Amino acid sequence: MQTIRAADTNEVVKLIFRESDNDRKVMLQLEKKLFDYFNQDVFRDNNGTALLEFDKELSVFKDKLYELDISFPPSYPYSEDCSQGMQYMNTRCPAWCDRILMSHSAKELILKSENDERQVVYDHIGPNVCMGDHKPVFLSFRIAAGAGKPIANMHKCCVVQ
Fold first, then answer.
1. Is pLDDT above 90 for 113?
2. Is the dihedral of CA 109, 110, 111, 117 positive or negative?
3. Which of 28, 32, 88, 109 is the most exposed place for a label (fewest CB within 10 A)?
C-alpha cells in the first residue's frame, strides 16, 4: 500500500493498493470522491454476497430491527450515464445503501405463510436499467387477511348473551 500525504498538512490524501504478484498492478485507489477498483465484477459475482460479511452498520440494531437476507448486488453508486446502467461510479465504494428494515413482530407476520406457500421477495429494481445512482429495493409478500389480530379469524356465528 502506498500512502500519499499533502505537503502542507501531512494529511493522507490518497491510498494506492497494488497487487504484489501481478506486475504491481494498481487494484484499488482511494482519495476524496474516488474509489477506483480495478475489477468491479467482485461486486456483481454471486450478487456481491461474499462482501456482506463487511456490512456491519445494522449490527448495533440487531435486537430491535430485522432485515431479510440480501441476495442482490450493492444498490449504490450506479453510473447515471444511460449507456452504463450496470456500472458503478468510481466515486464511492459500492454498498447496500437501500434497505428494508422491520420489527421482529413484522418479520413474523411476513414470514408466516398461508397454506405453507411462502412468497417473499426482497430484491432490487432495474438491474440492467439506468435509473440514477441508486437501484431501489422492494419487499413483496403475501399476508393473510386479519393476520396479526388474534381474534380476527375467529368465527362470529353464535353470540351468547
1. no
2. positive
3. 32
